[in-house]
Amino acid sequence: MASVGRNVLAPLLFLNLLMYLIVLGFASWCLNRLINGQTYHPSFGGNGATTFFLIFAILASVLGIVSKFIGGNHIRAWRSDSLASAGATSVVAWAVTALAMGLACKEIHIGGHRGWRLKMVEAFIIILTFTQLLYLLLIHAGLYNSRYGPGYRDTDYGVGGGTTGDPMHKGVPANRV
User: Quick check: is 30 in a domain?
Assistant: First the structure.
């Protein structure tokens, strides 16, 4: 029954990866236009929060992409040790994405002319905040129910045959103690 978590997590991981790649592309384009001083471009625009928002959107998308690669490795291995790295990177990616969402909300609140590319980056960051949170909750679901993830309480995997039962000499054959 451990495949329940995998079957739900894999499509969400792929969807988030695609969305983070789109955000990275469009946010990079917008930041390049901003640096070049081409804010008059009809599909760009912006306001005082745009610079900060784009920097955090790019940072969130890079961290999100790395988190998805590590999450893909976890889905392939489906063990508790791979879960630790996938969970940690997904928490960091979600935190920075939530920060970028706050800046997106500030940019929307300030108003002014914002082109369609900038509005799309804002919308994707807001959507990614919630889908990344869902991904984060699903990846940690095994902590509470082993049906949804690798067995956290299974401490004997990867250990050789006969052991002494002594936790200090775990994995050491009984004749070597």
Answer: yes
pLDDT of residue 139: 87
Pick the closest to residue 54 from 106, 91, 94 (CA basis).
106
Question: What would the pLDDT profile of 97-116 be if each residue is shown by its tens digit?
Answer: 999 999 999 999 998 888 89
Which residues touch 152 (CB under 8 Å, ≥6 apart)? 80, 142, 143, 146
Residue at 46 is within a domain: yes
Tokens (6 digits) for 147: 């049906």
pTM value is 0.80
Residue 13 placed within a domain = yes
In three-state secondary structure terms, 45 is strand
Among candidate residues 154, 131, 114, the one with its CA nearest the CA of residue 68: 131
Domain tally for the chain?
1
User: 176 lies in a domain?
Assistant: no
pLDDT digits (tens, 9 = 90+) for 45-56: 788 899 999 999
Owning domain of residue 118: 3-151
CB of 87 closer than 8 Å to CB of 5: no
